[in-house]
Amino acid sequence: MDKSEVNINLWKRIAQISGIFAFVISIILIVNYAQYKRLDPVNTELINSLVERLNDNPSDSLLRDQIRTVDLLSRKAYFTNQWQVRTGGYLLLLSIAVLVIAIQIIKSNSTKELVIGENNDAFLEQKSARKWISISGVILVSIALLLAFFTHNDLSQEFTVASVEKSADPASGQTQVEEKQPVKEIKEAPVPTEELTLNADDKKVEQPNEVSNTQNHIVDKKPTKEVALEKEELIAEKVEGLTEFPSEIEILNNHPSFRGPGGNGISYRKNIPISWDATSGDNLVWKVEIPLHGYNSPIIWEDKIFVSGANSAQREVYCIDRNSGKILWTGEVKDIEGSPATSPEVTEDTGQAAPSLTTDGRRVYAIFANGDIIAFDMDGNRVWARNLGDPNNHYGHSSSLMLYQNVLIVQYDIKKAPKVMGLDFSTGETLWETPRNVKVSWASPVVVNTGNRTEVILFAEPSVDSYDPLTGKLNWSVDCTYGEVGPSVAYADGLVFAVNEYAKLVAIKTGENPEILWESTDYMSDVPSPVATEELMFMATSYGVYLCYDAKTGEILWEQENDNGFYSSPMMVEGKIYLMDMQGIMHIFEASREYVPLGDCPLGEDGMTTPAFADGKIYIRGNKHLFCFGK
Predict the structure, then answer these.
(1) Which residues, other chains included, contact 564 with Cβ-Cβ below 8 Å and sequence gap of 6+?
(2) Per-residue pLDDT tens for 77-96?
(3) Are the CB atoms for 132 and 124 separated by under 8 Å?
(4) Which domains does the chain have, with CATH numbers?
(5) Torsional class of 36: left (φ above 0), alpha (ψ -120 to 50), beta (otherwise)
(6) Exposed e or buried b per residue across 392-404, where buried means at least 16 C-beta atoms within 10 angstroms of its C-beta
(7) Number of Cβ atoms within 10 Å of the Cβ of 280
(8) How many angstroms separate the CA atoms of 311 and 333, rounded?
(9) Which tops the pLDDT comparison, 430 or 126?
């Protein structure tokens, strides 16, 4: 047997194995699809029966824990199933490619009639039999590939849809969102501008300590009331004149980004109400309907509030008077070079306008799901606009914008060529661009001063990464996670807290040699971001649990269950935590080692955004309206 014959026989064997492998994978994918369509991974018979038992005996804590355990296993099985389907599809494509290559090589090197296998089986030598076997194989493989594609698409939205429909932990026993009563529209009610009042005795929990000279908030060095007094005196100072970019005082006096100054979940405003009811009008100052839908959270600079809205055809930025609720101007986002003709497909709970805006009091900046980014001045005049390229991902772009001095920071962790960019805030030109070796992320940048320097901290699989906000240079990176990342990080006293569902919660000690201080897998969040103090860390989950950890040890100090899930992130202000569930009920409790509830305040409509604060007022965006509450 010469060399060419040996090679032909080898490729015949490879073709045979590839064909059998493709056949087996196809059968497995078809069976997987049949099982998937027969079973509902969210409403399992076991969970529903346990929930019925819990309804009869709601005080049974053991049963409640059992439900949560079963639910967690079901959710983990979902991701396993998703991985199996995706991997199976790739293996099927690979086996087909190998089979085609092997057949072509055999054809090009053999003068004999093609027969896959070593034995010249009479049945396979018949032309008609080979024809029908080939046709059957192609049909089988095509069906398997289509079902793998459909299954992957269905699974990618299964728990998202279920979360929105249920808005609850299965252990709560509540399986549907309650129907909302109509809310009576309250007309514009001018509110007098209030002077800033400072009272050190209002502090009930240690606030972050020493003020840095950068955009973000604090360097945690000096604990206690002495630093709190210094910070209050600093915030109380008047800023005269308009500099190139805002000072620390200006930033702390406003709510310029998603989750407040630096995006860290802490506001320094005063006299925030802890009681309201939009349905009865209690403490409701005004509400206004936002023309286009969006899940971005309100931001505030002095007497102006900014939000955005969009659909597949329109994108708009709105400036709203903080005192009256009147829409002062609407900025249209159109005629941008490079903007795609059609908007990308997004899921219902992300939409076309999920990222929150940011502002420096000179301009306001917005980004949308199609990659359009734009800047308006404070009077609504367009300053610059560009398209950053398709932010392709399977939910829709949701990473909010962040400013540091003259740099507009954009976390662009997309499927192809993920990166973080620093744009010139006055022109939109790229100042720096740093490629990232990460997977798709929906988290937002957080800017903190860690003692010796200011850092912008990003989170995406597989790592938490720190960059220099002025140059984009990587400071440090810690591999610590896997899976899809939605929550942003929190920072306090030298620790970064990062969490994503179906992975783990980690506390990272920053410094020249950062390391994981502790980690936990008891509870994880897939959307809400955590918030932390020197001693405590607070977190919420989309399935309705919120809890408090010891920041230094990871010990769970207390946990609470809620009938509705959370997409909104907890905000800390005046030693209190404000946390809104998906039905628009704001849960207010003390930021302390023991759970001390202070109030549950209904919005009157569903909501998934994070509140913003000004002195004496809280501003909340629901699914239709923007609300202002205060005395």
Answers:
(1) 167, 168, 172, 174, 177, 544, 581, 582, 583, 585
(2) 655 665 666 677 777 778 77
(3) no
(4) 3-172 (no CATH), 248-630 (2.130.10.10)
(5) alpha
(6) ebebbbbbbbbbb
(7) 12
(8) 12
(9) 430
